[in-house]
Amino acid sequence: MYIPSIKFHYITLSLFATLSFFTISPAHAEQVVVYSARIEQLIKPMFDVFTEKTGIQVKFTTDKEGALLARLKAEGKNTPADMLITADAGNLWAAAQAGLFRSYDSQILKSNIPEHLRDPNNEWFGLSIRARTIVYNTDKVDPADLSTYEDLADPKWKNRLCLRTSKKVYNQSLVAMMIAEHGEAETENIVKGWVSNLATAPLSDDTRAMEFVAAGRCDVTIVNTYYFGRLMQKNPDLPLAIFWPNQKIVDDGGVHVNISGAGLTRYGKNPRAAEQLLEFLSSIQAQKLFAEVNMEYPVNPNIAPDPAVASWGRFKQSRINLVKAGELQAAAVKLMDRAGYR
Asked: Greatest CA separation found in the chain?
């Protein structure tokens, strides 16, 4: 009787230990896998809070947009990724066109994210806003002389304009949205005017363009707002200021905005956890973190921007749906090439 009892207890304890392992082992804890074109320092704070609130672990891989899209395409149904996070609506549109996303009809996301900042088919959603606006040299430009993006094509700005290269998606999206607003013919004339007014060949990035403006090598440029914020944090005495274009009349369009955003992958293995994460990223708590870590604007209109960002002033933004940044991107690239914008 004694030996069978020992065997029984041994078997019972072994079974309990095995079950306990599968219950608490981190390898079997609920998780979500994210591919992110945004660097770790810009996303990890949100992921850490999400894990603390839900117990769901977030595993993430960071890389360039193109590399992540190629990876998702190559992996197909075998991808471990549940979500893709990337900057610019043009990149999100490209991922949707490649069939990498699945639609998610969420009332939470619809409530938190304005319609023009999310895909009409619910395949991607904006998570933070960056405005592409005008920055000028305060020693050389009277802001009363500034008005619109289109006005920078006026001959009064001859040899006074600096621009980032047309090779960057940010400018491709800007021109695509202008095509949506004005049509190709008018937009091409505007871009030709910009090219005619350039003080120097297009520059490698937004920061370089602002440095040229601050040094007096040109007077005005077009950049993403967070680049302005970063540069002014490092060099607060630079003679630079933001001007919000296209604000004066009702049909003036408004400031061109773009987003960083996310979509749920078509073949993700953790769909419910991924949906929870996406909805969390649109919440008040996550939106405040988004706004603080990269000097961007919350996509959720109920959240105030970081005080440093708020100090730049309020502006009216364009309400054209950002899907146009993707749909018209190829047309924009061809147009800029015809206009001589390199």
From this structure: 103
Q: What is the pLDDT of residues 70-91, one digit of tens each?
A: 999 999 999 999 999 999 999 9
The pLDDT tens digits for 172-194 are: 999 999 999 999 999 999 999 99
Q: How far, in Å, are 124, 135, 139 from residue 206 at the CA level?
A: 26, 10, 20
pTM over 0.85: yes
Cβ(101)–Cβ(283) below 8 Å: no
The burial class, CB within 10 Å (0-12 / 13-18 / 19+), for 182 is middle
- pLDDT tens, 291-341? 888 899 999 998 999 999 999 999 999 999 999 999 999 999 999 999 999
What whole-number distance in Å separates Cα of residue 221 and Cα of residue 289?
29
Residue ranges of E strands in 70-114: 83-87, 101-102
- Secondary structure E strands in 13-142: 31-36, 57-62, 83-87, 101-102, 125-137
Nearest to 213 by CA among 199, 201, 194, 192: 199
Contact 171, 163 (CB under 8 A): yes
SS3 257: strand
Is 63:37 a contact under the CB 8 Å cutoff? yes
